[in-house]
Amino acid sequence: MRAGMSGTVSLPELSVWTVPQRAGRNLGVSRRKRRCWAVCNRLLAANHAEIEGHLEMGRKLLAAGQLAEALSHYHAAVDGDPNNYLTYYKRAAVYLAMGKFRSALPDLSRAIQLKPDFLAARLQRGNILLKQGDVQEAREDFLSVLQSSPTNEEAQNQLERVKEVESSMGGASEAYERRDYYGAIALLEKVIEFSPWDPSARELRAECYLLVGELSNAVQDLKPTTKLRNDNRAAFLKLSKLYYSMGEHGESLSHVRECLKLDQDDKDCFSHYKQVKKLSRQLDMAEEFIQEQRYEDAIEKYEASIKTEPRVEEYSRRAKERICHCLSKSQRTEEAISVCTEAHERDPQNPLILRDRAEAYILNEEYEKAVEDFQQAKELDGENEEMKEGLERAQKLLKQSKKRDYYKILGVKRNANKQEVIKAYRKLAQQWHPDNFQSEEEKKEAEKKFIDIAAAKEVLTDPEMRQKVDAGEDPLDPENQQGSGHHQHWPFEFNPFGSGNFQFKFNFH
């Protein structure tokens, strides 16, 4: 461009950083062009200072661990000087510190392109390639470093690792083909140690774990592959199905949703999603009903869940356990004992099933069986205070059953309400009224029974005393009343320990 045509000079025409004014005069350069050169020199100097400022800020922020802020300054430095190999190398270092090794690779390659003998960048790129499992490309970088620096110890060591990874990966593949899955797992251990970002090694080991039934280990290997491969819907779906088969429906739902985020039209993921969603809703609602003590509704949902997923044993086992719990809580004793027994056969090491069956046995007045179940539950979960308390209570009830049983005296169940207790009392009190009997022997027997009937009514209609009975104590036992300040009284007007002619007046309330 001619200076006289527009009064400006475009930057591409300037091929030097500074131009001495005196040289300009000697070449016959016009005063206007010299002025333009001076302006451009100042702009270039300002730009250089700005780039240096970004690099310095980036260095400080990187040292302080403020990686995102440091990265923004290195972006600005690269934009300001796209041909500076060292700036690319420094930005790659930030990417690596952030765990973004994929983003670091292009910067390292660009640095090597700008300066082919930059060994630090080539060595760093080789390290990343080895961790990714790209052993052939990694070998080329390490060999290139050794050509320029034959004694480079890091390059020598990494080259040996490349050979070891190649050998172990080949051996693992052969072991897998001959179905030596544990042998393959052992060889892949070394591969993954040196190439932790290689998805193929983790996928192969996950498959081996699956084939030997170690599902949790398979999950742990598959999880990282969702990030090591782009758009890895297959891994998300496989993880979802694995979690589903392990009975972890929440995790299963979470992972299949990740698959659909990548492609909402993925047919396999959507089909599995519908199944998991339906089952999860039933199980979650059932647990909500239990929290609300809506046990019948909870049972209905758990029975529905068994129909929704009859093939996976874990869900059937869990459903039976929770139905057992609901039946025990709702005091349907015979059904509870039956279902809990079935659940115990499916899951004999589950202390919660034994606890719930023990509670049903207590309601059914089978105290020896309750003690047995609580004892076993305590052995399985010795730190659980509920099991300890339950065992003590069952033992007290067993001991009490061999003495005076207030429920048996009135002929009512342990879950009888106050109205049922009073009704039974009235019936038995009238039946065993001493005035109904003629002989002295019959009257004495009737008197004894009536005292027990009256005592049972007193205890079972008093919430505090009934609570003690249910805890295995006899509130009318003199041994239990010592120091308690509670004195026995009688709901009828006669001295039960006297003799002679009695005038009975009963208070039926």
DSSP strand content:
under 5%
CATH architecture of the domain at 1-114: Alpha Horseshoe
Determine the structural class based on helices, strands and strand pairing. mainly alpha
Kindly state the percentage of residues in helix.
over 70%
Nutshell version of this structure?
With about 500 residues, the chain is an all-alpha fold. The chain is built from 26 helices and no strands. Helix 4 runs antiparallel to helix 5, helix 7 (about 120-130) runs antiparallel to helix 8 (about 135-150) and helix 15 packs antiparallel against helix 16.
Tell me about this structure.
The protein has helices at residues 3-6, 21-26, 31-63, 67-80, 85-97, 101-114, 119-132, 135-148, 153-177, 181-194, 199-211, 215-228, 233-245, 249-262, 267-291, 295-308, 313-329, 333-346, 351-363, 367-380, 385-401, 406-410, 418-431, 440-460, 463-470, 478-481. Mean pLDDT is 86; it is low at 1-27 and 483-506. Among the domains are: 1-114, Tetratricopeptide repeat domain (Serine Threonine Protein Phosphatase 5, Tetratricopeptide repeat), CATH 1.25.40; 312-402, Serine Threonine Protein Phosphatase 5, Tetratricopeptide repeat (Alpha Horseshoe), CATH 1.25.40; 410-481, DnaJ domain (Helix Hairpins), CATH 1.10.287. Helix 20 runs antiparallel to helix 21 (385-401). The protein is built from 26 helices and no strands. The longest helix is centred in the first third of the chain and has 33 residues, at 31-63.
